[in-house]
Amino acid sequence: MNIGIKDEDFVRGKVPMTKEEIRILTLVKARIAPDAVVYDVGAGTGSISIEAARMAPQGHVYAIEKNPDGIALIAENAKKFGAENITVVEGTAPDALADLPALDAAIIGGSGRKLADILDIIGARLRPQGRIVANAITMQTVAACLDYFHAHKDDYSYEAVQVQINRLERVGPYDMAKALNPIYIITAERK
After folding, report:
1. In the chain, where are the structural domains located?
2. Exposed, middle or buried, 130 (CB in 10 Å: 0-12/13-18/19+)?
3. Which helix (H) or strand (E) segment is 161 a member of?
4. Counting Cβ atoms within 10 Å, is residue 177 exposed (0-12), middle (13-18) or buried (19+)?
5. In this predicted structure, what is the pLDDT of residue 112?
6. pTM of the complete model
7. Which pLDDT does position 1 carry in this prediction?
8. Domain 20-190 is of which CATH architecture?
9. What does the alpha-carbon distance between residue 100 and residue 107 come to, in Å, rounded to a whole number?
10. What percentage of residues in the chain have a pLDDT greater than 90?
11. Which H or E element spans position 88?
12. CB 125 within 8 A of CB 102
């Protein structure tokens, strides 16, 4: 299944959504297998959950979201794209992760300042060679991720990339590059 659903194809609302280019890179870094179990923590509109579900048709995606508007959008988008292998988990991580099964990949888009606790729970259930991909827009989240994985370097190999996307925007007779917010993508693989 191809990845890269266009942003405008998702039902949106006012809930944050991972943009198409970042979504593609995130999913590639996650290396989701057809039978993978995936957590999408801070799922927002469900854009990553939907694409992950399409990549894992024999697997299952758990979309964890605390915002009621986001929960409704995830359900609506799952229905729109026929993604029946998604379970929406209403609540705040890490508590919302309590009863979830072992996993192959976790994507973290929001952590509510509880990143270490979330990573501890995910790490306890992550299968060997499982991957964690965290998208960060603040330096504090980047630092927290790197500190965590450095402190657990015997358990994980990790990398971080900073991505800056520019889209052309028509301005009169000209095309001008309009920058989107830079994103850090931190990837860790269980040894």
Report:
1. 20-190
2. buried
3. strand 156-163
4. exposed
5. 81
6. 0.94
7. 66
8. 3-Layer(aba) Sandwich (3.40)
9. 14
10. 94
11. strand 86-90
12. yes
